[in-house]
Amino acid sequence: MAPASQRKLRVALIGCGRQGKVHALNFAMSTPRCDVVAIVDPAPTTADWVRTNISPDLPVLRTPEDLYARYPCPVGGKPSSGALDAVVISTETAFHATLACDAIGRGVHVLLEKPISIDAAGDEQVLAASKARPDVRVVVALSRRFDASYRAAFDRLQSGELGEAFLVKSATVDQYDESGWFVPYSLKSGGIFIDCGIHDIDIARWMLGLSDAQGVRQRSSARVKRCFAIGYNALHPELGRYGDADNATGVVQLTDGRSFTFNLGRTAIHGHECSCEIIGTKGRVFVNQNPAMNRVQILDGHGVRTESTPTYFERFEQAFVTEAREFVAGCLDGADMCVTLNDAVEAARIATGLTYAVRSGEIVDFDQKTGKPIPPRGLVGSTAGTAIVDSQSKL
Ligand SMILES: NC(=O)c1ccc[n+]([C@@H]2O[C@H](COP(=O)([O-])OP(=O)(O)OC[C@H]3O[C@@H](n4cnc5c(N)ncnc54)[C@H](O)[C@@H]3O)[C@@H](O)[C@H]2O)c1
Fold first, then answer.
1. Is residue 15 within 6 Å of ligand 1 at its C-beta?
2. What fold, for 4-141?
3. d(Cα 109, Cα 144) in Å, to the nearest integer?
4. pLDDT computed for residue 382 by the predictor
5. Class for domain 147-312+345-390, per CATH?
6. In the chain, where does the domain assigned CATH 3.40.50.720 lie?
7. Residues 127-152: what's their mean pLDDT?
8. What global pTM score does this model have?
9. Which intervals hold domain GFO/IDH/MocA-like oxidoreductase (predicted)?
């Protein structure tokens, strides 16, 4: 085996759809300290895509079982020659928990796409599996933590120059896609707060000092006290059937009175918008107030304009590369990372609380012992009190 300093992490990618392709390219082409040993996806188009975009020699397998049959897994968490060291899981969210628990149980490090799962049961399963295997690294891909602009804002807060951060206002609104792909996707994604809002929730926790990750110097012992949410189906009322909305707003209050609020959507006309404002006692910072694609300004008969990032791929292109490199370094060197599994679980609990709130129309309290949202009475067996409306409904 190569000396530790020269060793490369042997990684396989499970799931090669929209996001899996981004990871496949980044791990194969932009992460020098790893070797991609296989891509796993049952879709018939995967082999062609891999041949054209990565290499004709890279094995493409249909199932995770095929992967584990082909490569030995580490024994006792120790790297061994030819073994598979890590997997990157980018399947639909509904399969995350089962696939992650399987890999963890085999001693294989995991980079798991966000969110951990579509429901609280899956989140807790992954947490339990990780606790049982402390030798295995489990990182949830909360990609904004790897973005240079969010990091610069965070560093400024941590320096104390903005005083104490007490309010985070965040927005994630995807460019409207007329195909309405996100309607059936809702069933497999957990809904807008779990699928999309998880990033905003995570960033707010981080900025407000609630994260237990390395680098958080201004740490707070506050917990989530309660939350409320409303939804509006501006263009896709059929989403209401799944207890989901194409636009939604959430408010979360901490036990020390500080708060965060965000709006989420799937119907932006100008492009992908992803902005964040953090307000402190001595100042405030904005991240990406103008979702500009580049530094070009157009001055013409329409006024002064910039072209907008069309999707999150362009906005977070470099963050995904940093995420891949830091995950690999974390596995090889045992270095701490900027996000912990606990962060992802806490964010998931808040997203679950907001989903309860939007589906019941009630304020959701959090159990102060467990940190979990308490399902409100209005949630059980009725959609009468839902806080989701559309242009045809009346409040
Ligand atoms: N971090 C981010 O900003 C970000 C952005 C987009 C998507 N995501 C996450 O990435 C995940 C995937 O989303 P997507 O849009 O790429 O979905 P997608 O539907 O485009 O791709 C999912 C792929 O998984 C494959 N698959 C399903 N079951 C499998 C299995 N058992 N083994 C191997 N492959 C399997 C499917 O064939 C498909 O190709 C989701 O969890 C989503 O939340 C994260």
1. yes
2. Rossmann fold (3.40.50)
3. 21
4. 46
5. alpha beta
6. 4-141
7. 97
8. 0.95
9. 150-285
